[in-house]
Amino acid sequence: xxxxxxxxxxxxxxxxxxxxxxxxxxxxxxxxxxxxxxxxxxxxxxxxxxxxxxxxxxxxxxxxxxxxxxxxxxxxxxxxxxxxxxxxxxxxxxxxxxxxxxxxxxxxxxxxxxxxxxxxxxxxxxxxxxxxxxxxxxxxxxxxxxxxxxxxxxxxxxxxxxxxxxxxxxxxxxxxxxxxxxxxxxxxxxxxxxxxxxxxxxxxxxxxxxxxxxxxxxxxxxxxxxxxxxxxxxxxxxxxxxxxxxxxxxxxxxxxxxxxxxxxxxxxxxxxxxxxxxxxxxxxxxxxxxxxxxxxxxxxxxxxxxxxxxxxxxxxxxxxxxxxxxxxxxxxxxxxxxxxxxxxxxxxxxxxxxxxxxxxxxxxxxxxxxxxxxxxxxxxxxxxxxxxxxxxxxxxxxxxxxxxxxxxxxxxxxxxxxxxxxxxxxxxxxxx
Length: 432
Fold this sequence. Notes:
Elements lengths: L2 H10 L1 H28 L9 H12 L2 H12 L4 H24 L4 H29 L5 H29 L4 H21 L19 H6 L1 H13 L2 H31 L6 H54 L4 H29 L2 H29 L7 H24 L1 H4 L4
Helix pairs in contact: 2-6, 2-7, 2-8, 3-6, 3-14, 4-6, 4-14, 5-6, 5-8, 6-14, 7-8, 7-12, 7-13, 10-14, 11-12, 11-13, 11-14, 11-15, 12-13, 12-15
């Protein structure tokens, strides 16, 4: 069945369509909020951001997820996922309003980061819940297509949200007023996302609850056992484990390149005193990368049938290894923007394949916990990459050493995936 025909069938499924609306509005809001954070931390006229400052901000906003990320999965396997999508988005709307107020009050950075962490922290429940709920609204035969459409559509929505945030900064004078207005826009969209989840029935998204499910205290008390069970389940699923390892390494590379791009936009490709120009360049890069994500959504279903899931993941990583040096070592805008497009295709293509492996090889009762562990691995890899980049990068973002090292990591991932599949094809079952 063609991709277009599959998409038409998916969009006829009412529960899938409603879940997609929730995802689009949620990630549209995320895009607005993320650009607001970037504008405040990196491109604010009052800030002189360094790679170390960017890495510190990423650590403050992302690393704590490794502490409570497992709680997300345990609770997602006990709470109605529809209710999670509703209440988490309403909570993020309220917290966004508070964060906007702190920006206007010019509070110390640590207090701003704490408020931002509260907004982005709740996001872990939303994204993990959306991924865990997808197999409840789509049959297994069309899950690859659904995984191509939904996360990529969400990423495109985030890019559009980022574009909306850039528009706010174009029309509002640079400073705390523009940053606060952008955060408030994100809060309004979070409210819309929460209300849209009411179109889904309370029990449509699962999980299957026994009675009324355990109380909150009992669920939290069982976190250690739930984590152990989730890890044990993942160990018994070599397909999922291998895909997760490969995607985590690719996420590390993407994180280091993100910091590089931020520094190039801020200091190398524009006048450092003109933060607006740097922010506009970043917006262009985000849009080009989103176009790569969209392209990946179109070609990945075909590619996984043609090359198998492992072959597609390995091919994406190998292509990244080959393309990165000639495009990135110039450290000029046009080749780097081409790299953003190419890596958008390879990164999203590998992620779609990995999501499909995780959803098809992990039992529904464990899916929330495993996706939370997946999410934690993503964040730890991204923060680790930012820390490494901070140690290597100069202020203007030009480091041939870092680019070449990342290319070698991509190559190692490709070789590792193909080696494991060749040695144990029956066990891994990665070819589809």
